[in-house]
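User: Show me sequence and structure for the first protein, then do the same for the second.

Assistant: Starting with the first protein.
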Amino acid sequence: MRVKMTLSYDGSHFYGFQVQNSGVPTVANRLYEALRALGIDAPFEASGRTDRGVHATGQVISLDIPVFWQRDLEKLRTHINRRALPHILVHRIEQVADDFHARYDAKKRTYRYIVSDREPSVFLTPYRLYTAPFDAAAIHEAVKLFEGEHDFRLFSRTGSDTTDFVRRMYRARFYAHEKDYIFSFEANGYLRSQIRLMVSFLLKIGYGTVTKEDLKAQLLCQREVVRDPVAPNGLYLTRIRY
C-alpha cells in the first residue's frame, strides 16, 4: 500500500531534511530510523528538502508500507511518533494511489517566514527572526511585486545545478499576527534560498535602504541589489497542495 504522511518538525534540531551520512541528525535520517524500527524499509519521497534550521508544519512524504501495517494506519502513526518525538510529529497517514509522488505531484507549496521587531526572547529565537523596526506599510505594498511568473535567478543562491529559474508565485502576503509579522508565499516551486532572499529584500525596503524600483530591477534581472539572505530560523514549510 502507498501512503502519504503529513508531518511537522523543529528544524533547529536538524542539519536539514535530506539524508546524510549515518549519525548526522537530519529529518530524513531520523525518520528512517523510526520506520526501520517498525519493519518499514522502503525509501520515501518528500515534497521538498528544507535547509538546516528551517521548520515544517505541513511537510509531506510518500512511501510504500508492508502489509502488516495496512490495516491500522492510526496505530502506525502512534508508533512512529513514539520514536520520532519530540522534534518530529506525524499528523496524518492516508492511503493514496500507487503512483502518487509527494514531490512530483505537488501543485502549490506554501511557506511562511516569521519576524518580530520587539525585544527578543531567548526561548523563541530559534523560531522567528528578531529585527530592527521597519516600515510595515512599505513592505505590505512591495510584497505584491513578487506575484506572477518571474525569472528568479537573482533570488537564488549559487551552487545549485538548476537551469530553469522561472517560477510562478500565486500569492505573496505580509501581515501582522499577534506580536509578530508574517510573510506568506505560495508558488509552484522555489529556488535554493529564494524565500530567504525575498524576505531579506523586503525587510531592507522596510528599513529604507533599498526601494521598490530596486526590487523591480532585480526581478527583471537587470541588476543585483540584495544578495544576503535572512537566517533560516524564521522559515516554515506550511502546506502542500496536490
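Switching to the second protein now.
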Amino acid sequence: MLAPYACQPGESRGRQQPESMSTFRSPFQRDRDRIIHSSAFRRLKHKTQVFVEHEGDYYRTRLTHSIEVAQVARTISGVLGLNTDLAECIALAHDLGHTPFGHTGEDALAKLMEPYGGFDHNAQAMRIVTRLERHYAEFDGLNLTWESLEGIAKHNGPVEGPLPYALAEANAQWDLELHTYASAEAQVAAIADDVAYSHHDLHDGLRSGLFTEDDLMELPVTAPAFAEVDALYPGLEPMRRRHEALRRVFGRMVEDVIAVAQGRLEAAQPKSVEEIRQMGATVIRFSKPLYQELKVIRSFLFHRMYRAPSVMKERAKVTAVVNDLFPLFMRQPELLPQEWRRDVEAAEDETTLARIVADYVAGMTDRFALQEHARLFG
C-alpha cells in the first residue's frame, strides 16, 4: 500500500532500452539487484570512507556506509508509505562514483581533470550506471529505470549551472528534468546518507582515538544521549556505553526526519510524485533545531577527525598517489589494462583520453591504487 505521492512501479517511465517485465520483481527491485551485482558496487568494499581502507578492519568503507544508508532509507520510506525498493536502490548507488581514498582522492582527481571538464563523484555514478558497467549483451551500463537515474542524478536537489560532463552526457540521452526536485524516495536516500555518516563517523572517530566520549559530552545531541545511558545503566562498560549512546543519537535523527516529513506531507497533501517534484523545496529534511545541532557536531568532526594531523598526513600521501598515476597514464595510455585499449584507440582528442583515464583511476580501490603506484613508481 503506497502513498499517492510515492513512485508507483506500474507507472515507471521505463528504461532507455526497452525490456520485458520480470514475472516476480518490480522494475525498481531489478534496478536495485543490478546495482548490487555491479562491479562498481563490489569495489566499494575497498574504498575509503574517512580512514584509508587498510588502516583498520572496523572502520567503515564505502560499501558498509552504502549498506547503512540503504537500511535507513528503507526504514524512513516504509513509515512514509514510499517505495522502499526505489529508496534502497538510490541509496545503494549514491556512492558508486567515488574515487579511491574518499573525498581526498576526488579532490585530487577533480583538480587534474579541470582542463577536461572536471570530476564529480555524483556525475561519475551516472557514467558508471549508463556506460561503464559492460556486462549485458544489449546495452552498456545497467539500463536502469528513469526514476532510479533521476534519483542518482539529483537526490541532493535540482542541478543548476554548468553540468559536469558525465551528467551532461547522461541527461542528453534521456532528459532527467534536472531543474526539479527529485522524488520523495530520492530525498529519503539523501537524508539517509546524512544520518548514516553523522552516526558512524562518531563511532569511527572514537575507535580511532581522535576524540573521546568526554569530548562528546560537550556537544548537543550526543551529550543528552550519554547522560540518558548513564542514568539507566550506571557503571556500564565503555564499549556498551558508547554503543547505547550513539544508537540513541541515530534514533533521534531518524525520528526527527520522519516527524518533519509527516508534518510537511500532511500540510501539502501531494496527490502524486509530480507534485513532490514541483513543491519547490525538499519535503524530507531535519527540523531546524536538530539541523543546527548537527552543524555543531559536523564542525567538531571536521576539525577533530577529517582534518586531524594523522588524517591529513595520510591525505597528503594518497593525494600524491593520484597525482602520480593520472599523468603517467595520460603520457603512456598503453599501461592501461587490455580491456581499456579499445576505448583509448578510439579516443579522438586529449579530453576524451583524459576522461578514460579518469574512469580507470576513479574505479580503483584504495589497495589497488597503492599496489599500482608501488609497481609503476617503485
